[in-house]
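Thread title: Can someone regenerate the structure for this chain?

I was given the following input by a collaborator and told the matching structure tokens would be attached. They weren't. Posting the sequence so someone can regenerate them.
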Amino acid sequence: MRAADFDRIIIVDIETTGLGPRARPVEVAWIQVDHNLNEVARVGSLVNPGIPIEPGASAVNGITDAMVAESPTLEHLVRSLHGDPFSAGHTLVIAHNAPFDYRHLAPFFDTSESLCTMRLSRHLLADFDNYRLETLCTHLGLGGAQGHRAMGDTEMCLALMKQLADHHEDGIDGLLALAGRALFEMNMPFGKHKNTPIADLPSDYVRWLRSALQDLDGDLKECLDLHHPPS
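Best answer:
Regenerated them for you:
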């Protein structure tokens, strides 16, 4: 796919009630951009999740149950917007850790694809202890607004995306192609073997990872499977 194949491109971030599979949005922001990543429009709003916000999530993003009590649900917010930006055409959704954010918005798209700046950064940027958005933007000198709030993180994601596109010879089209390639080289991001190349992990540790951590990061699982095929 090429950028020109999409009717719209949006940079998205969603803050949620927690991290589990039942987590629901408490804040959403997106910036619509053109095919050269220039801003066209933006939307940001608190969202009523319909369930309590976990204390750990509130401690990170500062959003409380009282703050979202009178806010629209995500569905109401999207459906009520003039022109409903997700309803028609083919949309490219860009986010950091895109699988997490994308699943909350997927029901509102006609047809769409996602692009993950974390995955792209793992392809293009070496020697980072972690690939959190704040870490990357700080080390790259991109600055950014308040972290762990939806619009601030969306702005940082857009800045990172522009940086990655500027440093790829084929720009955003090259990034779209790169996103489909397997992550063959990756270091262990946590645990007692942190920073060890995935290829060098002991086989017993790989077995433990697969059995103990059912929701492995998609990139980590892919790289594990390449170097340590499941038996």
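DSSP finds ten helices and five strands in the chain.
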